[in-house]
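From: lab user (bench 3)
To: helpdesk
Subject: output format question, protein + nicotinamide-adenine-dinucleotide

Hello, I'm new to running complex predictions and I'm not sure whether the block I got back is the full result or only part of it. Here's what I submitted:
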Amino acid sequence: MTNYKNFKIETGADGIAVVTWNMPDKSMNVLTVEVMTELDQIIDQVVADAAIKGAVITSGKDTFSGGADLTMMQEMLARFKKEQKQDADKAVQNLFDNVGRMTGLYRKLETCGKPWVSAINGTCMGGALELSLACHGRVVSDAEGVKLALPEVKVGLFPGAGGTQRVPRLVNQQDALQMMTTGSSLTAARAKGMGLVHEVAPAKKLVEAAKKMIRNGLKPVQPWDEKGFKLPGGAIYSAAGANLWPAATAILRRETSGNYPAALTILKCVYEGLLVPFDTGLKIEQRYFTHILQTTEAQSMIRSLFVSLQELNKGARRPADIKPTKFKKIGVIGAGFMGAGIAYVTAKAGIPVVLIDRSLEAAEKGKAHSADLIAKEMQKGRMTAEDKDKLLALITPSADYAALDGADLVIEAVFEDRGVKQAATEQAEAVLGQNAIFASNTSTLPITGLAKVSQRPKNFIGLHFFSPVDKMMLVEVIMGKKTGEKALATALDYVRAIKKTPIVVNDTRGFYVNRCVLRYMSEAYNMLVEGVPPAMIENAAKMAGMPVGPLALNDETAIDLSQKILKATLADLGDKAVDPRHVELVNTLVDKYDRLGRKNGKGFYDYPARPAKKHLWPELSTLYPQQDADKVDVEVLKERFLVTIALEAARVMEEGIVTDPREADVGSILAFGFAPYTGGTLSYIDGMGAKAFVKLAKKLQKDYGAQFKAPKLLTDMAESGETFYQRFNPYKAADKAA
Ligand code: NAD
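Helpdesk reply: Thanks, we reran it on our side. This is the complete output you should expect:
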């Protein structure tokens, strides 16, 4: 019997081969070229061996598989781009053939003449689910947390290994479209209910259940290869089809504003593919996939949302020569809105936390926040009573700073006031060990300034969380002038421990994220003052791909906070640093109308009691003479939002505040949802090229003002034709070593 690196095959006396996928050098199985080659050989072996009646494929790991290794796609594209320079037609043909490799392999499996059953023992995603769909039978484990999904659309791709053809031939088209265009996960029960899998079985009896299907005479022929096959839920040209398709295209448009070519392509593949025989459908899918892979959207999303995100999570920016910290105890000072959230995510990671406030009562109130969050998780079935007890036992509320003794890291989240922060720093340092790291969660005060009162400024760092802490996946790690490498390493170890994504940012007013967010809101103020109807402002932002309109966002962060920031900027940087029309707008809202945002139920929006929905404050449009909506160019509004934010990101790079383009891109998507189809702020610029971007910025500058002035960095890049990923190449050291 052949030996495989990634699979083990055991054939029992019953003639059923159990193929166990277990990659030796990975924590999760992924589809690579090597895996495909071995699978190809295994299919041949199963067919050739007369003693084998059928095969069960399962995984030797907790999960079944995460799907295709997307770096394989990147390599395929890199090869394509190289070949394109020599022979464009041949390059496309090669890309088309490469794209079709997985499709061909799965088709070979399902037509090999012997029955295959996939025993899905754990989460099964993307290309691995497509492999399972090519099997004649599918049994899923009933173990908690097992998920099935085709999430390709989330990285700008779509299920291109037969997924768009098999899913709608197994389940009704509406469910198929929903599953693939959203990329959302299905539980085993839901997958069974839809008809995507045949059986749900207890984890321990999974392989046995799969074998039983074969023993019971499972036919090695897929439904679509049988004569007289009928689509579940009806054909495209049927009453059901006529009901579904016009609505499906409209819903997709509403959800994506046409920004995600891959999502639209799923509709095309299903619609066109169901009108033709199965093999032709596969060819249609292959052709579209070849096209989608070449789009800027797919390339940027794969890079930021898969490759860079993973690299940052694995500590790409961590100083390598410092030993990882195993956290025995973390201190959180200030059990308010943020501190309570930080205590929760820390305890959730299994780390003991001391939560300090000015009184025990206040500290206990902070701990109660964790109990509330857990109750919500329990309602959703995501946590058990046992998890609750364990988590709550890890949080010790206290009013005594002495309880911080022995902490490896302390995170300060007291009031945003220099004096209060100074006192907290001094009291903490009095009990902390020499090597303990002290982090501030300040959002506006530069870390270098706060560190001045510290006895150990090299151990002083910023850990800037976003609210709500339990949901927001990004943490900005702020380096003060004197912050040392050990503090950085510890901070990054901590962010990793709580399973969030860190970006490393050098100290500056507003750091990275808030500088960008302020630009977003500030452009909305400009539009309001110009008399752009408020609803258009909000809708244009969403059409540009932003998840929350700028006015809604400002309501969440509070308008009186904007007022405070404007006042502080005026005081620190002088009159020229703020637009007096913005000050007037914010003062009118806060001082005249007491509109502070969501927190007092009155902001740019009104917040009527539930179940009524929030709506824009009607009088907002009476504050300025309104333009005729028909004359406002919504495309220009969209550009203004994306360009003003991207320009700020470019300035941040020019100033050396952020130094790695991966961090600027990933940070912008995780923190404020910067149009994910662009791949983030810098990829947005790279995607159109610095030259085109500078031209666009110049036009906007002429029409709308100096906020659109491109920094020198960008005009230089426009001239040289460089991208951010070339100029600030994050892989330079690795490239040199190679
Ligand atoms: P908050 O007012 O909800 O909480 C502050 C807590 O600190 C209060 O419970 C207060 O009793 C406690 N406190 C004050 N002085 C103390 C002392 N000397 N010792 C111990 N506890 C003390 O404020 P918040 O919104 O949680 O903000 C806290 C920090 O986080 C601020 O620096 C803020 O800028 C920053 N931040 C806030 C947000 C946000 O969205 N609210 C986001 C990022 C960062």
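A quick orientation on your result: The first strand starts at residue 7 and ends at 11. Let us know if anything else is unclear.
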